[in-house]
């Protein structure tokens, strides 16, 4: 009947609008049961369960053999790691696999079988599950004693496939690779040419005393290539040139030319290319996200225009305001956007909305999220008004910054004076007294600001919440110190009483005071701009952090499999050790720098030449490519904020919360109606009347 059809159209519109909000594809089943399943799948509970499952399966590597989750990483001192019994982690894996099977089954059903065969990610998802489950069966067959577990390398895929933004980012990175490859090829040519020059320049001579450069760094082609590759990272600079420089200062020209051409020109050229190309590809990705949002809104308009209550005499499709209000009440969306759209609808005098009006209403989704602070209290007393003006003035905040700076300087002076003293020789009277004074001032400042601004307005500023929280913690620590050790007095010395000594308590207070000095950031416009840029990256670029986790995890698991047992505990003198059976730790314990020695042993003696490929790949992906990608996005975010800084009010008055999509909002192109309708008519499950 008409009522059933209307309910279906309303539910379809709700789902399409939610798809638009989340930039999801609308190419899924749209019948009643599928819509219920779709909303259930994307509910917070289901997505939380899926995220928890991914976290659990990734975290298993911390307790599985041969990983060691111990307090210290030094093999000389750490206790044996907990080795879970066979079947424990495997049972948890099986539960995770079951969740993933349900996940891929629901996804496959919702998009339909025709779309399923076009979706490479879902095909890879199923293949990963099959291989992982087969490897899981092999593990149980060998009673968990097998040395290689392929499924551990595949686990990051579950994190990758669960994020649409991570997929887009990976696609953008993949599209940028050809341009990066040209510079990397030039870098390889640069490295090869200088390797040849080095082997000719530092060739072996008859005088063994003068051949130190050849012996240590340029004995053969692999060693020469490795030495210059490490020099490109500046990790062995200036050690690599010291033997040759000691022989003749002119040899330094070779190393200077190599470093200038490689580090200053080629590496920075790579950064410029990555910034230019990746920004273009990310812009295309964000453009497709905008198209998805516009398509979802238009799809909602089309299904709502099919409602029976729509006037048949209308020359063009339109949607009733009542139907849209009904959809908005049921749709999951930000309360700010929902209220803004409803306000616009109430201000609208018409009962029917055209496609353009409907689309314009939902442009609220594209706007910056603005957080306005509550008003200050209005006092009737003339004296209170003067108090409010004085303590609410910016100069009062500047005075607090000066006091905080004086506190930091006094702590530095005391630390310098007591640097060489034993704990028993220190007199903490002066430091305890000045800390008491400054903490009382911080408390008074906080109370006066609350008086002037009101509690709600005071707490609406992140800087005030940070400031107030640290002030309360400092006050609690100071009261606890006085309760245990009494008030500061000459000869006030540390004694161990309870959990912390007096010196520990004072150090903790001082660290919090130093940390509190960050309160000056909002008062310095340029510094605030830099900090907000970094915070925006942390909040909005989760996709990049996710891919970074994938890279780190994959290389960590590979490293565990390749170098298991490379550093042996004290007393193990197996023949697999280096130096013809001599124990690594025993040999290194006699050296001045134990950690440097261990790293040197691993990198030079223990690792075979083929294993160098692992470390070169790690350096290329993590340091060269990924760091440059991060720099590119950091620059883009900072330039965007810098260009708009004059158009906005002070950062302390209004807070703007930006997303990756909003970074490029000014340069994105709106899709045309023809493009939207053509895409809608290609929908595999939605059949429009026009």
Automatic annotation (TrEMBL):
Coiled coil: none annotated. It is a multi-pass membrane protein. GO terms for biological process: calcium-mediated signaling; endocytosis involved in viral entry into host cell. It is found in: Late endosome membrane; Lysosome membrane. Keywords: Calcium, Calcium channel, Calcium transport, Endosome, Glycoprotein, Ion channel, Ion transport, Lysosome, Membrane, Repeat, Transmembrane, Transmembrane helix, Transport, Voltage-gated channel. It catalyses: Ca(2+)(in) = Ca(2+)(out); Na(+)(in) = Na(+)(out). InterPro entries: Ion_trans_dom, TPC2, Volt_channel_dom_sf. The keyword Signal does not apply. One of its GO terms (cellular component) is monoatomic ion channel complex. Residues 52-278, 398-638 form the Ion transport domain. Its main location: membrane. It holds the Pfam family Ion_trans. The chain crosses the membrane at residues 45-63, 92-110, 122-143, 180-203, 251-275, 395-417, 429-448, 468-487, 499-521, 541-563, 613-635. GO terms for molecular function: calcium channel activity; intracellularly phosphatidylinositol-3,5-bisphosphate-gated monatomic cation channel activity; ligand-gated sodium channel activity; voltage-gated channel activity. Belongs to the calcium channel alpha-1 subunit (TC 1.A.1.11) family. Two pore calcium channel subfamily. PANTHER family: TWO PORE CALCIUM CHANNEL PROTEIN 2, TWO PORE CHANNEL PROTEIN 2. This is Two pore channel protein 2. The gene is Tpcn2_0.
